[in-house]
Amino acid sequence: MAADPATETVTTDQLVAWFRAFAVEIEAHNEELTALDSAIGDGDHGTNMRRGCRAVLAVLDADAPEDVAGFGRAIAMRLISAVGGASGPLYGSFFLAFGTTGGKVGELTGEQLAAAWRAGLDAVISRGKAQLGDKTMLDAMIPAVEALETGVRQGSITEAFAAAVTAADEGVKATIPLQARKGRASYLGERSIGHQDPGATSTALLFRTAADVLGP
Ligand code: ADP
Ligand code: MG
User: Fold this and answer.
1) What CATH number does residue 75 fall under?
2) 63 part of a folded domain
3) Do residues 78 and 65 touch, judged by C-beta distance below 8 A?
4) Index of the ligand 1 atom closest to the CA of residue 85
5) Is residue 3 domain-resident?
6) Which of 86, 178, 206, 210 sits between 20 and 30 A of 94, alpha carbons compared?
7) Contacting residues for 3 by C-beta, under 8 A, at least 6 apart
8) pTM check: above 0.90
9) Is 51's C-beta closer than 6 angstroms to any atom of ligand 1?
10) Helices (runs of H) and strands (runs of E) counted in the chain
């Protein structure tokens, strides 16, 4: 990757490698995600994400996406159709908007990449109608996308993702004292307080793997 922030780019193949790395992390964190969801939900976030990621991998193995739009669309279709829980359509919306905004191009600059993440975030918000502090995946995604946007304006993609990972991880921890206002966890009312949100936890993995694969 070029050292000049203005000219460094991320290719479709790198985006595919990012999703593959995410799928590996989802497998590795399956039990943790399920345990978190058992405490405040129905105990299926790990298996939901694993099922979705496996379905995506089957498609990526069979048919490599030609461009960023195709990357987002292929992932979104499988996540939406293979995952029964709320997280499938939410992550599906994320990837569809990511791809649509990224466009029919083979690579993205740092600023274009951040714009794609922003579009994905906006799609999650419009689909799920949650906001910061509702104890959802948005509590990791909103601060991380903001850090990514600031980061790519000021420096390299590597630095931007490092800042985004820190923001996502802090966002995950910040969910612990919150009372859930969206999703299944909201049914628990005050009993949702004191537990880490599973969706925020998987979103932090999305950023960590992006930093690992897209950052260097
Ligand atoms: P389900 O709740 O249907 O069992 P999952 O267990 O796979 O689905 O996913 C639960 C996660 O989805 C939650 O931890 C939360 O982060 C996220 N989530 C639920 N509802 C919303 C929403 N309206 N907006 C954003 N994220 C949400
Ligand atoms: Mg669940």
Assistant:
1) 1.25.40.340
2) yes
3) no
4) 3
5) no
6) 178
7) 156
8) yes
9) no
10) 9, 2
Query: In this structure, which residue's CA is closest to atom 23 in ligand 1?
Result: 128
Report the nearest atom of ligand 1 relative to the CA of 136.
Answer: 16
Tell me phi and psi for residue 109, to 5 degrees: -75, 170
Owning domain of residue 70: 8-214
**DSSP states along 40-64:** HS-S-HHHHHHHHHHHHHHHHHHS-
Under 8 Å CB-to-CB from 121, ≥6 apart: which residues? 94, 138, 141, 142, 145
Q: How far is CA 144 from the centre of its chain?
A: 10
Residue 65, ligand 1, Cβ within 6 A: no
Tell which atom from ligand 1 comes closest to the C-alpha of 202: 16
Whole-number Å distance, alpha carbon 108 to ligand 2 midpoint, is 34
Q: What angle do CA 59, 61, 65 make, to 5 degrees?
A: 70
The residue ranges of DSSP E strands in the chain, in sequence order, are 9-11, 107-109
Residue 2 in domain: no
Pick from 7, 21, 16: nearest CA to 212: 21
Question: pLDDT tens digit string along 109-161?
Answer: 999 999 999 999 999 999 999 999 999 999 999 999 999 999 999 989 999 99
Asked if the structure places residue 1 within a domain, the reply is: no
Per DSSP, the three-state class of 135 is coil
Instruction: Report CA(19)–ligand 1 centroid distance (Å).
Output: 20
For the stretch 142-153, pLDDT in tens is: 999 999 999 999
Q: How many domains does the chain contain in total?
A: 1
Q: Are 97 and 86 in contact (CB under 8 A)?
A: no
Q: Which ligand is nearest to the CA of 138?
A: 1
